Automatic annotation (TrEMBL):
Keywords: NAD, Oxidoreductase. It comes from Nocardia gamkensis. The keyword Hydrolase does not apply. This is Mycofactocin-coupled SDR family oxidoreductase. Pfam families: adh_short_C2. SUPFAM superfamilies: NAD(P)-binding Rossmann-fold domains. Belongs to the short-chain dehydrogenases/reductases (SDR) family. One of its GO terms (molecular function) is oxidoreductase activity, acting on the CH-OH group of donors, NAD or NADP as acceptor. InterPro entries: NAD(P)-bd_dom_sf, SDR_fam, SDR_subfam_1.
Amino acid sequence: MNRVSGKVVLVTGAGRGQGRSHALALAEEGADIIAFDICADIASNDYALATEADLAETEDLVAKTGRRVVARKVDVRDRPALHEAIGAAVAELGRLDVVVANAGICPLGHHVPLQGFVDVFDVNFVGVVNTVHAALPHLGAGASIIVTGSVAGLVPQTGFNGQQALQGPGGDGYGLSKKMIRSYTQTLALTLGPSSIRINAVHPTNVDTDMLHNPGMYQIFRPDVQHPTREDAEVTFPFMQAMPIPFVEASDISHAVTFLASDESRYVTGLQMFVDGGASLKLGLAGQ
């Protein structure tokens, strides 16, 4: 307990899924939380995103740990809004020590319009850049930035046996955004090093959240079935990992995030941490 006691942590995409898990895990370890989420759907993304009620639930759950929490509806694509919301939250909580740039979407399939590429890239990469750059003026020596990547996003666009691993414009945008996150975090780690500010990326495999459990994702895993169900897709989920698991839990990623947020990792920067049951090794990505 108290591994991040006294720290203030910003988490984007905190309404549900990995973001909520990270916010709660860090609060339970002593951090005060700034929780942002778009709380709205994006037209090209054909599964529902978190709602204002979801973010309110995250806020309530964090408050029940006894930690302070500021929750705001913010779109990470809107840098001026991020500047304003972060500034107001820091004024209320007094400081900012950790940034968890987690917000992301993943609309897949050839039915996704070209706007899907734009939306995915703008949320998953531009949104990360906006979050980090809006937060930087508030960060000092010892601060930690953690960015959510993706094992699937690092697979070459030609995917497996010459077939697209992530199909359609949304899949293309997803893959590009996650590949650029790897380069961005490595480069920024060198830039921020003299200021003793760290930045690392965590790359999960399949995670048991709404991003995985939706019809578009099921179709990617079971293209042989016209309308695959969760049960259909779970037959093939384990194929991606070296370990015999269909997915990891959001809490597994939160453990990695907590380590990178804490002073236990005070000399860890530029790391591409795979929490993936060996998927990166199986796909030949770990050494890239």
